[in-house]
Design brief:
- Strand 4 and strand 5 form a beta hairpin.
- The chain is built from 17 helices and 31 strands.
- The chain is elongated, with a radius of gyration of 27 Å.
- The chain is of the alpha+beta class.
Length: about 675
């Protein structure tokens, strides 16, 4: 049976007289409209447009297209249901009616501008009688506040009757009036909503399609401005919605907006100061703001099965409403640069589900009755890297103390459950024996190197693919080194020594077994190490990032990475070399397209071996040739076509933003 999850919807209306003095925020102004939130959601599942959110909220808003504009913002887009739906095209849609029941403003002809910032949304309207400004800002991870400022431009007094008219898309939502409260009940999810009006004399009427709410008449003298403030709250039952309601009752919109703008301006200022010298130009500052906003829009506060805050891969794609293991490690490494608390919690979210034997599930969800957590496989071991990146930014020794024992268990798990022949080299695999889950474990689901793979049983709930993978063992090598660093700061001398010795042994195995001198590349091998699987993919340059390759091997890899017929494509470092027969750059997923994490590993690997100029060359192409990356209004994509630069698959993709961010910033 589908589990019904209650959430609470609060909408407060305040009529306030006054005005807000605009302050200039240089970086916010420079980077406005870095993402395009315009759209016209025609039904609950229309995913053509993006949604702005902040502070980890499980809902977002946007702008209606000028051709369909109303007196409100689009949305909310609710992620309180597993895959996300639009509750309405514009739930809080305002009409300004005169005493003759005529509209005082035609929204389509009166629209002046619509601007989005990392801090808030704003749209302005003007006709011969009225000027109206609407702003929306998040006050918490539960609530967003919308303020409408109405100014009389004429020399005569104007009387206005404000009316909110809402049409709801979800036919499973029923509305009930309880005094000044509008109650929303979902027949599918048992989600309970509360719409509460706090100004006097609000008249609520339930309609067939939604509701109307008539506010108290406003009288505006010439040049006078009055404001209507509305808040929406979507809150899970683990939180105290009555407390949130009390906080909102004391709300001061101007203060919240100003504080949020200051927070975002300071965030951008600090990050811009951390940019590498070659990225000092203004275009890279705007790019940086877009990357941060992409991550911001994907951030979710704890809710039910997700016990800590973290990031979705993409809220915009319906199947990415959860936390994935290696996505989380990558998110955390980047987010540590500007929000260490979020980075730490992203790590905790997955380790909340660590099993006694050390296993970490592939992905976890808020409501596991809708979408069960995936325990069929884990993902590549990058957790120790992420933890160390957080430590580099915070020097938080307690965080290392918290994670070191967990990371050790996770590391040992690989050698117990994924080393079929116990030779010290591990394989990807699964817990259920299926080949598909074994491929998922690599993260490179359909990579060419797995076309002929089979599964082998290691033990109960432990299976391996019949090949030893160079990327997996390079990650494990790097992990041993990160664990050695942690042991050192924890003053665990014997453990540091053990990790260092294990690292040296594994280094020799990787350099010997997986290397092919004829092509100058690392490859997966058969499980006995005797046969190379000669599909030239991105896994072969990961030993650079892990710093496990010899200097001679690194030079050969560098030559291949700079060869335009192999890896130096228009957007460089594809997941499969361009000269391979199975290269499929348009629809190949892991059989050709550019994935930013892998490209980052390749470029960062070159830097580690001293090939800075070569790394800079590839990084420049990666940033400038990927469709829309530097262009305002274009979203960051899941992957890119290596020879045309076209954006592919999901929009608003977190790990792409995360790795672009790490490319821009000093280590």
């Amino acid at each position: 049976m589908y589990k019904k999850e209650p959430f609470y919807i609060l909408i407060f209306f305040f009529i306030i007289q006054g005005s807000f003095a605009q302050t200039t925020f240089t970086n916010l102004e420079l980077s406005k409209n870095s993402l395009n939130y315009k759209g016209n959601p025609k039904n609950a599942t229309d995913r053509k447009s993006l949604a702005f959110s902040d502070k980890g909220a499980w809902f977002g808003f946007g702008f209606l297209e000028p051709s369909e504009i109303q007196g409100g913002f689009s949305g909310p887009f609710l992620m309180t249901e597993q895959n996300g739906v639009w509750l309405s095209s514009s739930l809080i849609s305002l009409h300004l009616i005169d005493d003759n029941q005529q509209e005082l403003i035609n929204w389509k002809t009166a629209l002046v501008n619509q601007n989005s910032y990392n801090s808030h949304l704003k749209q302005e309207f003007r006709n011969e009688k009225l000027e109206m400004k609407q702003q929306l800002v998040f006050s918490s991870g539960h609530s967003a506040i919308q303020k409408t400022s109405i100014t009389n431009r004429t020399s005569k007094t104007i009387t206005i009757n404000p009316v909110f008219d809402s049409k709801i898309y979800l036919d499973n939502i029923q509305l009930f009036k309880e005094g000044q409260i509008l109650k929303l009940i979902s027949t599918k999810s048992n989600a309970v909503g509360y719409v509460q009006f706090f100004n006097e004399n609000i008249e609520i009427e339930i309609t067939k399609q939604g509701f109307t709410a008539k506010a108290k008449k406003l009288t505006l003298k010439p040049n006078e401005t009055k404001e209507i403030v509305v808040s929406q709250t979507y809150i899970f039952p683990q939180y105290d919605w009555k407390k949130e309601k009390g906080n909102l009752a004391k709300i001061k919109f101007n203060t919240i907006l100003k504080d949020t703008k200051k927070e975002k301006e300071n965030q951008l200022t600090q990050l811009i100061a951390k940019k590498k010298t070659r990225y000092k130009g203004a275009e890279y500052s705007v790019f940086l703001a877009k990357l941060i906003l992409t991550l911001q829009n994907n951030t979710r506060i704890p809710a039910e099965g997700l016990k800590h805050e973290g990031l979705f891969p993409s809220y915009h794609y319906e199947w990415f409403h959860g936390f994935w293991a290696w996505d989380s490690w990558k998110h955390a490494a980047a987010v540590a640069h500007f929000n260490p608390k979020l980075a730490k919690d992203q790590m905790r979210a997955l380790f909340d589900y660590q099993e006694p034997n050390g296993f970490i599930p592939d992905c976890i969800y808020r409501d596991t009755l809708i979408e069960p957590n995936n325990y069929r496989n884990t993902k590549s071991p990058l957790a120790a890297w992420a933890v160390w990146e957080i430590y580099k930014q915070t020097k938080d020794l307690n965080f290392i103390k918290e994670f070191y024992p967990k990371l050790k268990k996770y590391h040992f798990w690989w050698y117990k459950e994924r080393d079929h022949d116990q030779d010290g080299l591990c394989e990807f695999g699964s817990t259920d024996g299926t080949l598909v889950a074994g491929k998922w474990e690599s993260g490179m689901d359909n990579a060419v190197r797995f076309d002929n793979s089979k599964t082998l049983k290691n033990g109960e709930h432990a299976y391996s693919l019949d090949q030893e993978s160079v990327d997996l063992n390079s990650f494990l090598y790097a992990e041993k080194n990160y664990l050695a660093k942690m042991a050192k700061v924890l003053k665990l001398e014997s453990e540091e020594k053990n990790w260092t010795e294990e690292s040296a042994k594994l280094k020799n195995q990787i350099q010997t077994q997986f290397w092919d001198a004829n092509t100058g590349w690392f490859y997966d091998t058969s499980i006995d190490g005797k046969n190379i699987i000669t599909d030239m993919g991105c896994e072969g340059f990961l030993p650079l990032w892990a710093e496990v390759a010899t200097r001679e091997q690194a030079k050969s890899i560098k030559d291949n990475l700079l060869n335009p017929d192999i890896f130096n494509t228009f957007v460089p470092l594809p997941t499969l070399a361009a000269n391979q027969a199975k290269f499929n750059p348009a629809n190949g997923y892991w059989r050709g397209p550019i994935w930013l994490d892998q490209s980052y590993f390749g470029i960062n690997g070159l830097e580690k071996y001293g090939y800075q100029n070569e790394a800079n060359q590839l990084a420049h192409k990666l940033i400038h040739n990927a469709e829309g990356a530097l262009e305002k209004g274009k979203s960051i994509r899941e992957n890119y076509h290596p020879t045309t630069g076209k954006g592919l698959e999901a929009e608003n993709f977190s790990w792409s933003a995360a790795h672009y961010l790490m490319l821009l910033l000093k280590n």
